Amino acid sequence: MGKTRSSRVFVGVGTAMALMAAMAVSVSGHDYGDALRKSILFFEGQRSGKLPPSQRMTWRKDSGLRDGAQIGVDLVGGYYDAGDNVKFNFPMAFSTTMLAWSVVEFRRSMGPDLPHALDAIRWATDYFLKATSVPGIVFAQVGEPYGDHNCWERPEDMDTPRTPYAVSAQFPGSEVSAEIAAALAAASLAFRHDDRPYSRQLLKRAETVFEFADKYKGSYNDHLGPSVCPFYCDFSGYVDELLWAASWLYKATKAPKYWNYVVDNRHYLNYYNLKTFYSVPFVGGSFAEFGWDTKHAGFNVLSSKVVLKNNNYTDNFVVNSDKFVCSVLPESPTKYVSYSPGGLLVKPGGSNLQHATALSFLLVVYARYLNRTNQVIQCGNVKATPDRLIQLAKGQVDYILGSNPTNMSYMVGYGGKFPQKIHHRGSSLPSLDQHPQRIGCKDGTPYFASSGPNPNQLTGAVVGGPNIQDWYDDSRVDIAHSEPTTYINAPLVGVLAFFNN
């Protein structure tokens, strides 16, 4: 892999501000406020536990009310990660971190949806407080995944084993523990203006969980592998989560020990040879990766704000953030991603829109940081200004919302044409209101195989999306393209808030 050279170029603050403001105005006809509201509403459809009176997704009912009871621990609550009924805490924590980062960066643009965004975060953090309440233990998952995936039933009817899985000092899981610490720390910032006692509680727990993750290093793959793999194996190692969590703790506490931890340990990231879930060749470099498993690009962008404030434009955080931008910019000579004919960012594997949303989030956040220091990026002979980063992110958002060759919105309930047969158990089966009788494990199979639309609309859900040729087959059998996930939606919340200015 050749070296990437990124140099700094300055641009006038007035020009940059005008360009950013211009780019934030919708010229595509999309209603970003409506999309924002729906993207947050989606999380109510993923809730596990006792639903509150304020529940707006009313076809969903209580579920998982005895989670943890078999071992005497309350593990009720949290989110189902996608179209199944398992609570995978690793991706759930990442989704929570991204929801919190969205509020931290863009709360002023959320308007009346800010309370709902905070509710979405609290639904997860209340659960994570439970999952970290036993000293020396962090719960990593609730639900036996193979039994769950062998059934097609509503979460309200679950009769598959709700097995709790945990990591401990003897059987460590630094990636899941550190990601939970990051989520709690980021959420403490999100709630700092609205609920200070809760914010302090979250931060205190974040520090405790991070200390546990760092003291007892190891991957949860090693002892929970049969249960977490191949669903949410950790392929990138746990150092990125430790650094990610330390960055969030520094942001929340300003304690020098956390920044020193980040600076002293960041070189360890170079020792990991990244793999992917789908066993496809990894290209690009760790600086270009960001998602539920790999935090490298997010860690660099988050940390770059600190050094940019100190006018340190040559620090590795900035250099690697620049390299990330150059890896996704279509005209960059060091581009590592692909683009469909219609302009969608595409990476190998399934559930592609997770990349489009997560990387777009980093683009708009980094553009804001660059604008504050009056800079642009140089990718070889190509100049990338903050407004170009925003333009690229806006193109991805608009594509998702329907500005694409099929004129289909990939957000359920947004626009006139959107997926009707998503891969999602609760959405595809009649609700308790429609069918109060229990639907057993295999009783849902005819609904899964049906060619008809799902009876319950999971408003705001963003599916995995089209293939590299912009083609989408609206079929719940096509899991890689038709399944929604929390980690697709969570970064999109922030991006939509940005464009909702």
From TrEMBL:
The keyword Hydrolase applies. It comes from Eucalyptus globulus (Tasmanian blue gum). The active site is at 423. Its EC number is 3.2.1.4. The keyword Hydrolase applies. Keywords: Carbohydrate metabolism, Cellulose degradation, Glycosidase, Hydrolase, Polysaccharide degradation. This is Endoglucanase. Belongs to the glycosyl hydrolase 9 (cellulase E) family. It catalyses: Endohydrolysis of (1->4)-beta-D-glucosidic linkages in cellulose, lichenin and cereal beta-D-glucans. It comes from the Eukaryota. Residues 32-496 form the Glycoside hydrolase family domain.
